Amino acid sequence: MKSKLLAALVVITVVLATAVPARCDVPSLISYQGRLTDVVGTPLDTTLGLVFTVYADGGGITSLWTETQPAVSIKDGLFQVLLGSVKPIDMSIFSGEERWLKVQIQGGPAITTLIPIVSVAYAHRAVQADTAEYALSSSSGGSGSGWTDDGAAVRLTTITDNVGIGTSSPNARLEVKNSGNTGLAALIRNDNQANSSNPALWVETSGDAAAVLGVSPHKYGLHGSSANSYGVYGTGSKGVYGYHIDSRHYGFLGSGNFGVFGKDSTTGVWGAIGGGNAGVVGVGQGISQVGVFGENSSGGVGIRGSSIDSSGIYGSSASKYGVYGTGSKGVFGFHPGTNHYGFLGSQNFGVFGKDSTTGLWGAIGGGNAGVYGEAQATSHIGVFGVNGGGGVGVRGSSIDSCGIYGSSAREFGVLGTGVRGIYGLYLTNGNFGYLGSSDYGVYGEYKDNANYGYLGGQQAGVEGYSAIHAGVVGGSSGGIGVYGSSTEASGVYAYSFHGSAIHAQTTVGGGGLAGLFEGPVQINCTYDCDTTVLRLDGKALFSQNDGELALSTPTQGDAGRYRLKFDNNSLAVICGSDYDNQYFSFMSAWGANRKYDAHLKVHGSATGTGSWGKYIELYHDGTDGHITTDAGHIIISPASYVGIGTPTPAYKLDVAGTCHASSFPTSSASSRRKWKNNFRSW
Length: 682
Description:
Blueprint lengths: L1 H6 L2 E7 L13 E6 L10 E10 L7 E12 L3 E6 L15 E7 L9 E3 L14 H4 L11 E3 L4 E3 L6 E3 L8 E3 L61 E6 L6 E6 L4 E4 L6 E4 L6 E4 L45 E6 L6 E6 L4 E4 L6 E4 L6 E4 L47 E4 L6 E4 L6 E5 L4 E5 L6 E4 L6 E3 L27 E3 L94 E5 L11 E6 L4 E5 L12 E3 L8 E3 L13 H9 L5
Parallel strand pairs: 10-11, 27-28, 32-33
Antiparallel strand pairs: 1-2, 2-5, 3-4, 3-6, 6-7, 8-9, 12-13, 13-14, 14-15, 15-16, 17-18, 18-19, 19-20, 20-21, 22-23, 23-24, 24-25, 25-26, 29-30, 30-31
């Protein structure tokens, strides 16, 4: 700590002791003042031990005198001591040659910076200067005849004269000049504690010029310090005015419009603190300039603003940033009452905000999403947007991905309320859709050809419409393409004027089903019923044991004829699988108590338009089986034999048992004989 303090030691001035009792005695005390600050320039208030040493050279090799003052009081960084009060100074060391002073904190490390003792210290050898009487005497050989002491004040006898200290040609009524490398040119201090309202220096002008003008090529134009009041206090149209000569930049403290004002004369950029409408106002003049710029390279805050009921920081720019901040969190906002916080610009998000109580947080401009919101409970919402004026609550846009993407483990990923809860629009061709309205749960429309569809309507769970293509298209690589369910009406309802009302497809060899209906399926023909209503390009399987294909007329005895039609195929087959024997039945009804016969008629070529043609009929009347025809013969043309009552016929017609013929052939005797001989039993 002491080494840090020592590094900040700044010498203010060196002043010799004034009057002493004996006129011819040279005083052995030197008045010395200095200033101590910490490493960042803050004046100290403490008590320290200081070591003072006078050297004959600037390198600190030959020591002429030294003393330690163990308890030096330091207030607001300033201290004052009398050198020689601990160890008297032999004034013979000031023989006219230059001397150097070193000031060091007691117990602190050695320092190499020495302070030159200027000519005022050598005045101790001028005995004649020890009294005011000599200084004011015109017979002393000096130039003191210009002064008059009337007992109440010491003043210039000629009031138009100038007084110079450190200069032989003063340019003002009072000019103080320090030509040395260190120390102050002048020090004015008021230690009157009884009346602390009196300033150390009061400068007043009744004209238009500045009351105090301070100029420094390297440091402060004016520096003031006060323990309990103003270091520098100025009144006027611009209370305290500062001007940089080279750049012409200027600023002031206290005016009719601003508390603090500063302007860059080259660019015109200006800023103010304490204006009529804002705590901090910054104005840039170009697109590359910043209105207010704050920087902290040590991990702290660049700019910090606070407001009880309005904006902590408010920035405005016509063409660029209103507020611009850089750092791990570019612009950070914090609410002291709730600890809610957010920031603009970080490594992960463009904008981030968090509710410290619930843990809800959201971000704009992240690595994977334009807007990202996260909720911590089922009653919370990840992203919530409200527009009370009839506009859009939340709007999202994406060139090749999701405009708005929401995710929730238990509740809504995205929740929107309004006439159309969530609305999406594709600007290029006007395609649009929305979630949640008075008519539909989900609605989407393709503008080019008026294709539209919805989920959750008043009449249907899913409805799709297309003028030239599919109304509803569903695809799945392993699951269900389209799934519909209804407790009272249709699970899936589809219609189409030109294309397919329902088009279902599954991958080859995938093992899935293009369509799955769990329950009755009805196909109604409303338009163009002469075309194919049900088309199967492939196999059809009824896997239920009691399954049936029922072709029913709307009313009993309807004249309509149902048919199984094999088109463009001369090898149509009705067959079973080859795993076991198959039994086919043709009956009038499905049940054990059938009361009507089933007739199977096979028709031949039609002889006229609209005619069914001749037939052969196979039926059973409950007692006997019948094979009849309405014209022609019944011809049996086996490749081998026909057996009646025998499974192994040996003749063209082999009857096992009795056979009765009401007549015999009459064409020829040989035919009769052949007919007779071929019977096994007669």
